[in-house]
Amino acid sequence: MPSRRRHSYGGGASPATVSSSYSNSTFTDRFSPTTTTDKSSSIARWISKIFINCFTPPDTVTSKNFDDSEQTIRSRRSSTGSVQRHYGNGIANETEHPRFTFDEIYDATKNFSPSFRIGQGGFGTVYKVKLRDGTTVAVKRAKKSIHDDRQGKEFTSEIQTLAQVTHLSLVRYYGFLVHNDEKILIVEYVANGSLRDHLDCKEGKILDMATRLDIATDVAHAITYLHMYTQPPIIHRDIKSSNILLTENFRAKVADFGFARVAPDSESGATHVSTQVKGTAGYLDPEYLTTYQLTEKSDVYSFGVLLIELLSGRRPIELSRVHKERITIRWAIKNFTNGDTLSVLDPKLEQNPANNLALEKVLEMAFQCLAPHRGSRPTMKKCSEILWGIRKDYRELLNTSL
């Protein structure tokens, strides 16, 4: 019987409703370390004080903006999965011919039998499928609901995004099928579950600090690629631990592009995309939440939440904890500000010089990512450079202490 391992290919969560209590809340191999300086520490503590007090309303931004309706694509799809895309600007006209058919997917899943199911999400159900040529893939089957328009937009968004990205730390796209009322997306199968599963020890192995730093660096590189090296740039909009899949070697792959959006065109003078708020509670950029203005820095904020999650092992929102510890980033910032940094470390990890150093350095960077105003946050490229230096310092200290 096929594996029943759970995955989070299942697509973006529904638009989050966030309480007011939360609202107060390839690279070169050598980067010069730029962390744990007095300056970065003071910046982190300055940002911490802002979080402890409150979030101040963001400044009014005057800019050109893009409406959701501008990036439209009209498609003609056949039941075999071939597609002729007609882009809104009339520039591109491309036809794809995938090597699989709906009948093949139907047969491989035994009529979408529950025994092949490996995940469930806002987009629909995910199945592990072995194709006729022996390739194992993940098949995302869009759910049929009254929200057909929304589901169709998310399906189209994921196709458009996955079709143009190629990176070692991004889930690979194979193709899609539309057959009658069925919408099917075929992507790379990543065999080792999600980051959240491993932080919860559902896979039976505790992630050590070295692995967590590798994962953070992989994710940073993937998001940097989306922001800087795709044309046009892409904002993921749903960076979270359940969307980070791990390979057998514990390398990270970012998944689920259902909420992804094209970034503003800087050459036109635009500074943001005006769009309905979508994402997951606990990871949402508060400035985006209040202004509906989406930028690459919204991904940076979500990445900061992910870093706290990696270090502490806690979910962003933990309702089972006492009130003052329910919002993880606020709890972590308060402990850091009070000089109790080690209490943030996941209790499953050993407190030793190397782990303690990595904890403090990554926390300092995470708090900069969590700045209430996007202008105070670093770019993802800067985060990648800093993490590279932290990982290098960690390995050196770990080797000398053995």
Automatic annotation (TrEMBL):
Instruction: Enumerate the residue ranges of region (Disordered).
Output: 1-38, 63-90
| Protein kinase domain sequence ranges | 112-368
Q: Report the top EC class in one word.
A: transferase
Task: Summarize where ATP binds, as residue positions.
Answer: 144
- Please give the Gene Ontology molecular function terms for this protein: ATP binding; protein serine/threonine kinase activity
Q: Does the keyword Kinase apply?
A: yes
Q: What is its EC number?
A: 2.7.11.1
What are the protein's UniProt keywords?
A: ATP-binding, Kinase, Nucleotide-binding, Serine/threonine-protein kinase, Transferase
- UniProt lists compositionally biased (Low complexity) regions at 25-38
For this protein, what reaction is catalysed? L-seryl-[protein] + ATP = O-phospho-L-seryl-[protein] + ADP + H(+); L-threonyl-[protein] + ATP = O-phospho-L-threonyl-[protein] + ADP + H(+)
Please indicate if the UniProt record lists Kinase as a keyword: yes
SMART domains referenced in this protein's UniProt entry, alphabetically: S_TKc (SM00220)
Complexes and interactors: Interacts with calmodulin (CaM) in a Ca(2+)-dependent manner.
Family statement:
Belongs to the protein kinase superfamily.
Q: Which PANTHER family match?
A: LEAF RUST 10 DISEASE-RESISTANCE LOCUS RECEPTOR-LIKE PROTEIN KINASE-LIKE 1.4, PROTEIN KINASE DOMAIN-CONTAINING PROTEIN
The name this protein carries in UniProt is non-specific serine/threonine protein kinase
